[in-house]
Design goal:
With 364 residues, the chain is α/β, with parallel strands linked by helices. It has eight helices and 15 strands.
Length: 364
């Protein structure tokens, strides 16, 4: 990993966890050299004779092979003696020397650990305390859990959740419902009373702990939102969980419009947020009920009465039929498929759950 490449990644605002992973070869190389030097000193002390590089368990700097640069670092400086490169790496990484470097070398090969959080395969696993349980309606419950420091995600991603009292073979797969700047994590779903069911974890009470793995999957590209470009956020049913995360993560002052549909008012979740969105001019529509304070009809019926600019960025979440039908309608209205993003019931291994409008899964 070159210094130039590292600087480029830093300018790209890569997550701290990513930079930590990229620095591991530097730390590991430093510890290898420490062991090399430590072993030679031990031999010199025991044998009462000058040590040679050939007697070291590592041949990186043996007399038979004299590389001009380190293959792991590519830092363009000459390496006549191991001690010099050790000093240089120590200066770069501000790593304190240790009496026996073998311990630090072993640690450098292990996944980095932050308080209560361990990173594996691009995501994190941690145990976190439930701090609130909120009954949204007769079916749905929202759990609010503690968010570890330095843990980040993007709207549209999901988590794998296991409860401490659950005997389920598989974790619950749940969309993240909180905003990217919230100090907690929210998940919303239907609890199940069977301990063998994945959603049994939704019965957890404040003070209990959940094992969380994630975030997983593709996300809504909120970084593509421009101040002068309109944004349409469309969804129905339980798709509101991911859309709530999106609404709470929008850049300040963005030109956004939410249209959300539910069968009836009894099925609504996030009622406080819905009232706030209605006051802000967003549309909350019921398809099987007419009620004061709510619009009536399907999403496409509301879109027919709107002027939709061709540079509109569209985010969709809900039942598969709703997402594909609405995406097709917007494409027919002139919105480029490259500007349409839909969340479908799919896993990260399938490239989901968020797909661009020109992806085969979005074409039905």
């Amino acid at each position: 990993m070159s210094v130039l490449k590292l600087n480029e990644l830093t300018r790209e605002n890569k997550p701290v966890s990513t930079l930590t992973q990229l620095l591991k070869p530097i730390k590991a190389n430093k510890e290898i050299l420490n062991i090399h030097h430590y072993f030679l000193k031990a031999l010199q002390s025991l044998n009462k004779k000058p040590a040679t590089a050939l007697e070291s368990p590592f041949s990186l700097f043996s007399q038979q092979s004299k590389p001009k640069t380190s293959p792991l670092l590519s830092l363009n400086f000459t390496i006549p003696q191991p001690t010099e490169i050790i000093d240089k790496i120590t200066e770069i990484g501000k790593v304190e020397s240790v009496e026996n470097p073998l311990t630090d070398f072993i640690k450098s090969l292990s996944p980095p650990v932050t308080p209560a959080v361990s990173e594996t395969a691009g995501c994190f696993q941690f145990s976190s305390e439930v701090i609130a349980s909120i009954k949204e309606n007769k079916d749905y419950t929202t759990l609010r859990i503690k968010r570890p420091a330095d843990w980040n995600f993007f709207p549209g991603q999901y988590l794998e959740i296991r409860g401490e009292n659950s005997s389920a073979n598989k974790p619950a797969i749940l969309a993240i419902a909180s905003g990217v700047t919230d100090e907690y994590i929210e998940i919303t779903a239907k609890p199940n009373s069977n301990p063998d069911h994945a959603n049994y974890c939704l019965n957890s009470l404040p003070g209990e702990y959940l094992t969380v793995t994630g975030p997983h999957g593709s996300n809504f590209p909120v970084d593509a939102i421009q101040p002068d470009s309109p944004v349409l956020i469309l969804g129905g049913g339980s798709g509101l969980t991911a859309l709530k995360s999106l609404m709470d993560s929008l850049p300040y002052g963005s030109n956004s419009k939410l249209i959300y549909s539910s069968k009836s008012s009894e099925e609504l979740i996030y009622r406080d947020e819905i009232e706030e969105w209605k006051q802000q001019g967003h549309t909350i529509s019921l398809t099987q009920e007419e009620k004061e304070g709510f619009e009536h009809g399907r999403i496409t019926e509301h879109l027919k009465n709107m002027v939709i600019e061709t540079n509109t960025l569209v985010f969709l979440c809900g039942p598969k039929e709703l997402v594909i039908e609405t995406a097709r309608y917007l494409a027919e209205r002139g919105v480029p498929k490259e500007l349409i993003f839909g969340s479908l019931p799919a896993m990260a291994k399938d490239g989901g759950p968020v797909y661009r409008g020109d992806h085969p899964k979005m074409l039905g």
